[in-house]
Amino acid sequence: MAVTDHGRAGAAAETHAAERLRAVVPRVMSVCIAIAAVYSAVIALIAPVRHLLRPLTGLIEMAVFPVEPNLGYAVFLGILAGALARHKRAAYWVLVAFFSLLVLGNLAVVLSASLMPDLVEEYALMGQVVASEVNLSVSAVVLGILAAAHNQFFAPMRRASFRKALLTLGSLLAVAFGVGYGLVMLFPGTLRPRDHLPWALERTLGGVVTLDFYRTGRPPFWVNSVIGLLSAVAVLVAFAVLFRSQRARAELPPDSETRIRALLSAYGSRDSLGYFATRRDRAAIFSPSGKAAVSYRVVAGVCLAGGDPIGDVEAWGPAIRAWMDEARRYGWAPAVIGPSEAAAHAYARAGLRVLELGDEAVIEVAEFGLEGREMRGVRQAVNRVGRAGFTLRVRRHSELSAEEARQIIERAAAWRDTETERGFSMALSRLGDPADGECVLVEARDAAGEPAAMLSFVPWGDDGLSLDLMRRDRHADNGLMEFMVAGLITQAAALGVKRVSLNFAMFRSVFEGGARLGAGPVLRLWRRALVFFSRWWQLESLYRANAKYHPRWVPRFLAYDDTRDLPRVGLASAIAEGFLTVPSLLTLLRRRRRAAGRPAEGGRSAGG
Asked: Most buried among 95, 122, 258, 261, by the most CB within 10 A?
């Protein structure tokens, strides 16, 4: 019996080890293909390096596969490497087809050599035969590895992506060939007229196909570069179509919103960002028990969650696992922007890495006051605005009439200073919706009774508010924000509010610690770099705008799966938060309208 148990344990260990080996195949294949892509790009762009590495290039081509000095081919390998790393099923089949063609081609050479040995000897082709034998062996091994690890490539592609990719590739390569053939006709160099068309076709196809091994002439090198660039664009677009991630619908269905609001009603006081999970451009995935949910949106191949999971802490783990399973199923990179410390620990237990991103400014109403030397700046601003005749009105959105709500929406759009709403993790991106009746509106009017600025806050449980929207007339007096925040806190008791969350200050600890006496050189250098970048992004100014209230600082984090995904996660976060706009037809139409002299909306959303 003991022997049998020992045998079963050994078999289980072997199975586990084999599964672990198969699990690393996508990453290993991705790294190898990425190295080949960089190599092809380098020898395509730098002629001296291409000549110097010619022996190594020949060795790689003999042992593995072609590494042509062509930008189109390099782009193809680079995109393929990225898709393999994301476990794309389409990339797997492309790689299988690639090595299958190599096996068939080399097998044909080997069989031909065995059937016609005299011909091989007569034309001194033994070197090519040996190279084909080596390449055949390596390609067969790679195919075997891919076959064993086929279940590791599980991320599906979009419906009809293959057909669309083929049509895209064919159309763009036809354009590249037409341009290339025209250039060869105009600038043939030493190329014979009968070789114009086949040479252009070879270059368009990236040099993978050779129609004449003994051709000696060639046009100027820049012609090859232009054709390679056009081929690169064709391949880039086609494979982007093929490998693009399956999208999750960027919407919150009514039944999911109802479930989210029910969880917020029971557990909403845990996280000041919880209410933003009701954004209609997010999706939500629930734990099996339905007691917790993760709110997310897919941006640039990143499954980006915002804030803490909603619901019972005991159900956070299952909800996070369900969300990560969904991300891995479709090859998305999982990431979370803005979780609290407790949620960051939960995401870390699920296998994500965590970085501190900054701090959220939270004002405790019972502890806030304008007295004292440290509040002098805020106190002076409030008094100055009050003497100028400004008045304040604070009320729930449910108290607004339909006409007042319409005016508020129009005013907020007119005061916005960007084309689109900003915010994802800390902004609601809507105003005046009947479902948001518990939100609080703070309005400031000048001495003539004209609107000058507004703040809008979303509920934070039963006794808190979280800043969503901050807008002001560009010509309004300075100090209005201090006047409005202080006025809201003065009336907070009547609203049943005990805490107010303001803006998020990214890298707050660096600004604060780097300015202290005795700060280390690395921290001072880091602070100087952030101050420099604050010329374009409101990093330091946002920190100072919050710090003057002397709030309680609550750390917020960034959670991500793989360090190599950080650039992509940063890009996705910038797109989601509205700091980076992806060009689209809608954007172009808006720019044309603005160029034609029509009014454009502007303003600033300061919820995050």
From this structure: 95
